[in-house]
Amino acid sequence: MQNTKPSSKMFLDIVDELRLMIKAEGIKSGDKIPSERVLAERLQVGRSTVREALRSLELLGLIETRRGEGTFLADFKKHQLVEVLSTFVMQQPKAATDVTDTRIIHEKAAIQTICEDVHKRNLPVWEGLIMKLDEDGEVFREDIIREMIVATDNRLSLKIWFILKRYSKVPYEQMTVGIENDIVRSLLKHLIEGDVLNALTDYNKWIEHIEGENEE
């Protein structure tokens, strides 16, 4: 009998499980990965959950789907966008400020896009993140923003954001702590409700909190 764990929670772990599987089995760029059906059986989750996880990986440029052939592990190094933006960041004197401002523009745009779209607001990942906060008392900061941008279905924005995140030195690689959890929980709830003004207010509080860590 198939596992009946809540898909909202499983979705947050499924991408990491896929990455571990790819590494363990030595799947390389250009190699085919198992089908949705096979992955669902091996990971003991529903096919819809696997489909959402694969969608996230595809938006990240880590896999590519070829009609009639299957899904393959992509070579992200082939993307010239990474080289172009990296060169800009390295050469422009005002780049640090521009990078931070542009990163924030992408993040706020994602929040607004989700709030204005009923389907995006109802994606199980938001409840899953809240569940993690309630059960674990923390969540990976990058997971929150990444999933928001993934939900917009804008591949270019996602790839740009990953580069901007790297060069803006914002500590997204850490877990949420203390009062930050309350801010993030409020942000996610307002996102689900489609309350863009309060969601953006929570986002501003959160970023101010995170950036304050670098000043301590």
Topology:
Elements lengths: L6 H18 L11 H8 L3 H13 L3 E4 L3 E4 L6 H12 L3 H21 L2 H4 L2 H13 L4 H11 L3 H14 L10 H15 L2 H20 L1
Antiparallel strand pairs: 1-2
Helix pairs in contact: 1-3, 1-7, 2-3, 4-9, 5-8, 5-9, 5-11, 7-10, 10-11
List keywords for this structure.
216 residues, mainly alpha, Arc Repressor Mutant, subunit A, Four Helix Bundle (Hemerythrin (Met), subunit A), 2 domains, two-stranded antiparallel sheet, 11 helices, 69% helix
Characterization of this structure:
69% of the residues lie in helices and 4% in strands. The longest helix is centred in the middle third of the chain and has 21 residues, at 95-115. 27% of the residues are buried. A two-stranded antiparallel sheet has the order 1-2. It has helices at 7-24, 36-43, 47-59, 80-91, 95-115, 118-121, 124-136, 141-151, 155-168, 179-193, 196-215, and strands spanning 63-66, 70-73.
